[in-house]
Amino acid sequence: MAQDFLEIAALTDVGKVRQFNEDSIGIDAETGTVLVADGMGGHRAGEVASRMASDLIMAELHEAVSGLGNETGMIAALHAANQAIKRANRAVFAASQTQAAYKGMGTTLALALFHNNKVVLAHVGDSRIYRLRGNALQLLTRDDSMLRDQVDLGFIRAEDAGESHNRNLITRALGIAEAVKPHLTDDSALPGDIYLLCSDGLTDIVEERDIELILSALRSNLPLACFHLVQTAKDNGGYDNVSAILVRVRERFPAARRWGFLRWLRGLFT
Amino acid sequence: MAKLVLSVGGAVVHQCFVDKLRLTIGRDAVNQIVIDDPTVGREHAAILEIGNDHIVEDLGSAAGTFVNGARVVRHILKHGDTMGFGTHALRYLNPKAEESELDRTMLIRALPKVPDKPSQPTGTEAADATINTARPMKGHLPSGRVKVLAGARAGAQIELDRVVATLGTPGGHLAVITRRPQGYFVTHVEGDRYPQVNGEALDAEPHALRSGDMIEVGDEKIEFLQD
Predict the structure, then answer these.
(1) Which of A40, A182, B92, B135 is the least crowded, having the fewest Cβ atoms under 10 Å away?
(2) B10 touches chain A (CB under 8 A)
(3) Coil, strand, or helix at residue A233?
(4) A121, β-bridge pairs
């Protein structure tokens, strides 16, 4: 059971300007899966898109990951994440095609699936995944955004990016076309590591050095760290919905150990 | 739509909308904005539209392009920026860019030539991954400090100039002071006893601090001071 080796804290907040919260979060402590989705679209359709994507992906991964059992290696887990995201994409897109109110809706995604001492990371759009190891915060995803492209092409300097008006322009989203290509990778999850999944309502308004400081100072109290991240975003203006999920790796979690635990559990009843 | 206002010595000589993906500024008549000044280059600078941004780029001019008095090579224009070309001032006006409506997430086609690479394995990508997308913060934050009177750090004075600062010892008794626009707050983080302020134990909630408050966290005694 994932709750043995992971500690999870999460918070989503409407912010101080918006009327509705179009972010959705998903947490499955049993399989060690978490996600943040930031919806877009008019008339609350963004809420529908992010909720739909979140629910579909979480449900499918719950099945798939429970079925992984003692499977070592990461290919099966990566494949499961990819499948779930693509299926959710088709469903959100189909819904947007059948109802006028949902036309053009879509969502970003940041997903982490902890398995076999590693973590599968998936993302689409400008929701991000960071890792705090020791006291150093590292960004593990590359935004699908106009701003990121501008910097990579050398149009503007990385340190000037905060001045840009393009932070809201994303170049990829889930649910806006028949197919989506998520970014998938895996990362070694070491005991003590803290993973942060967040919507751009946090990173557009709180500097990375402040996120790093909050996480390293409050690492022993994840709910408080989560609260402070969201509070800082709101203190800085809270222009957007803000969501943050923190996952701490408590101990090693080899796939075989989980299997061993189940076998041991079964042994008690036979 | 963004607007440009050209003036010399405070008198407006020309104004136009930024209605092209690229417009140029210079002495030659071929430019969209012509500046009759011998120190200005034939084709001196260009303004490009990239998404919601207008970026001014110096085209290798001898005299240079200035924005609000500072020489720039490329600069993202903000509402009210004044570009200097010789004796002329070119003001950029785009009040819409200030509105929060722009914060609504929208989908746009990726810029061409950006490699569609997947996220790379950890470690290789991260070094160049960090860009400062956080907008500059507006608003006022208080200024305060703590003096450690007893404990391992006794005698130390710590400026509270960051978003959080910890008191006590990680793994033992730990509290955090948060800096917010409305003031400083102290909150319990870990340990089997709550911190005390002026002899009164806190609960799990944040507690607003006043200058002169005495805080105890484990065996650390701290005086809080605010300007």
Answers:
(1) B135
(2) no
(3) helix
(4) A112, A185
